[in-house]
Specification:
The protein is mainly beta and 278 residues long. It is built from four helices and 19 strands. Helix content is 12%, strand content 33%. Strands 4-5-6-9-8-7 form a six-stranded antiparallel beta barrel. Strands 10, 11, 14, 15, 17 and 18 form a six-stranded antiparallel beta sheet that branches. A hairpin with a 2-residue loop joins strand 14 and strand 15. The two termini are 28 Å apart. The relative contact order is 0.12.
Length: 278
C-alpha cells in the first residue's frame, strides 16, 4: 500500500508504510521526497510539559488542511482505550480544538516545537468539546525508532498465558494476573513460575502476578505497562502470590533477548506484539 504526504504548497510526495503500532495509534511512513524537500518539525520535550502552558494543534479537521487551533495544556497523565482494546496511558490533554481530521497532526508548544501528536478527543456529540488528547513526543520517538528498525513492535514477554481480568473478576480471584500456563524453556519457566493445573480434587491455581520491579500489578493492563518500561534482554523482578503468599520465584524473571535473534525487520517475530499469547 502507498500513502501521500501533503506538503506546501500543494505538493504530495508519495510514501509507503514502514510499520504500525495500533496500540499507540502510531505509524511510520517512508516518504519519497527527493524532488520535494520537506522541512522536519522541531522536536520539544513532553517530560517538561506543565498544565496551563500554551498549546497549538495542527491538522486537517473536516478536510480543512493546515488548520491551527490554540489553547492550553489542561491535563497530564490521562488514559483512554485504543481501538485495539489496549489502554493508551500518559496522554497529554488540551483544550485546543481537536476535531475529526486532527489525528496525526502535531501538538506544539509556544515556540513551535512538537510536544505530542493529536490522537483523539472526548465528545458526546462528535464535535470538539474542548477535551483533546495527544501522545507525548518521547513515546512517539521510542515507538518510531523501533518501527523503523524492525517494522513491528518487538515487545518484551515473560512467556506465559494468563486469565483475562474480566474472567478473573467473575471468579472473584485476588487482584493480579493469574498464570494459566508456563511453557517449558520460557523465561517464566526458567524463573520457576507455576501455571494453573487440573488435579483430581479440582483446579489448582497457578501463580498470580502482583508486582513487576516494585510496581503494583492489578490486571493485565498493569502488567503490559510495567513491561513496556523494559526491552527484550532485560532482567526483571516478578512478585507473585502462591497459595496466598507473596514470593519472588528464584528472585528473577527473565525477558528473552528476541532482538538478538534477527536484525531483519521482515523476520521480526510478530507474535511478540501480544504479551503472553492468545
Amino acid at each position: 500500500p502507498s500513502s501521500a504526504a501533503t506538503g506546501s504548497p500543494k505538493s504530495t510526495p508519495q510514501g509507503s508504510p514502514q510499520g504500525i503500532d495500533p496500540d499507540k495509534d502510531i505509524a511510520v511512513l517512508k516518504i519519497d521526497a527527493a524532488h520535494t524537500p520537506l522541512k522536519p518539525i522541531r522536536l520539544g520535550s513532553s517530560k517538561g510539559v506543565e498544565v496551563g502552558q500554551s498549546a497549538l494543534a495542527i491538522g486537517n479537521p473536516f478536510g480543512l488542511d493546515h488548520t491551527l487551533t490554540s489553547g492550553v495544556i489542561s491535563g497530564l497523565g490521562r488514559s483512554m482505550e485504543a481501538t485495539t482494546g489496549r489502554t493508551m496511558r500518559n496522554l497529554i490533554q488540551t483544550d485546543a480544538a481537536v476535531n475529526p481530521g486532527n489525528s496525526g497532526g502535531p501538538l506544539l508548544d509556544s515556540s513551535g516545537r512538537m510536544i505530542g501528536m493529536n490522537t483523539a478527543m472526548f465528545s458526546t456529540s462528535g464535535m470538539s468539546a474542548g477535551v483533546g488528547f495527544a501522545i507525548p513526543v518521547h513515546t512517539i520517538r521510542s515507538i518510531a525508532d523501533r518501527l523503523i528498525k524492525f517494522g513491528v513492535i518487538v515487545c518484551p514477554v515473560l512467556g506465559i498465558t494468563f486469565l483475562e481480568g474480566r474472567q478473573a473478576r467473575l471468579l472473584h480471584l485476588p487482584d493480579g494476573v493469574l498464570v494459566l500456563s508456563v511453557p517449558p524453556g520460557s523465561p517464566a519457566a526458567i524463573a520457576g513460575m507455576q501455571g494453573t493445573t487440573r488435579e483430581v480434587e479440582g483446579i489448582a491455581l497457578g501463580d498470580i502476578i502482583v508486582g513487576v520491579e516494585g510496581s503494583k500489578v492489578e490486571d493485565e493492563a498493569d502488567l503490559f505497562d510495567a513491561l513496556e518500561n523494559h526491552k527484550p534482554g532485560d532482567t526483571v523482578t516478578i512478585t507473585v502470590l502462591r497459595d496466598g503468599v507473596p514470593i519472588v520465584p528464584t528472585n528473577k524473571g527473565l525477558i528473552p533477548d528476541y532482538q538478538q535473534e534477527t536484525n531483519d525487520k521482515k523476520q521480526a517475530p510478530k507474535a511478540l506484539r501480544v504479551l503472553g499469547g492468545s
